[in-house]
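Hi U.,

Before I forget, here's the chain from the pilot set. I'm dumping it here mostly so it's searchable later in email.
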Amino acid sequence: MGRILSAEARKFRRSAILWVIVAVILFPVVVSLMMAMGMESNGRKAPLYIFFSNHFLFVHLLMGAPLFALIAGYVFSREHQERTINNLLTYPYSRWQWYAGKLLIVAPIVALILAIQFLLQWGAGALYTGEWIPREAYLETPGEELLVQVIKAVLLGILFQILLLPAGAAAGIFGKNAIAPIVLGVCAAGLNGVILISGIPMKYAAFNPWFMPIFHSGMMAETPADDVFLRAYVSLAVVCIASLAAGLHRFVKADVHSGS
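Structure:
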């Protein structure tokens, strides 16, 4: 398994998708700084919390869904696109080992992207506002407690995004190209946007597992009820397990033809 992970890591480092990752990490920081400067120009003090909110809004709900689905699908579909799938399966490893290795290499990449983006948002916000802890007067929760809640939400968000990776992987396996996972991610992000704009009740939004990170972020007007959390956890588990099973079955059982 160690050799599989090493091989997958080397191939990923050579891919052009790294530039997309850099853009997704930096763009929300630039947006947050522009929003803060706009507020300052209108005579309002820019709050530190806006930088935290934009992390969840842009990275988890809007940009993260297509990116993470693309990454998960890309590590599988590129073997077909580059016509290396036959060579890959000649190595003395079973197909399920390759499947597990590819998913295992994607998980820390996603975790690293989210962690770096949050730290950049926090650092940029702290440098701009001069505060490392949110102390806005309109926030009912004390700053230290709120910061702990945000960090906890970030860690949970990383976990949720990792659990959704099998869906992107399955799209790449079935589609044998990067288009299928991108379409899946764009649809998920679009649905997230519709929920945010239209104000769909949380009891219905919970059926969308890609909306899950927002429940713990503190961005909601009110804390969702326990049954909403339960519904969201069940939806996430169903998508994760079904995608994992379907993707693994397809990858292990599918006939492989040169050039396909």
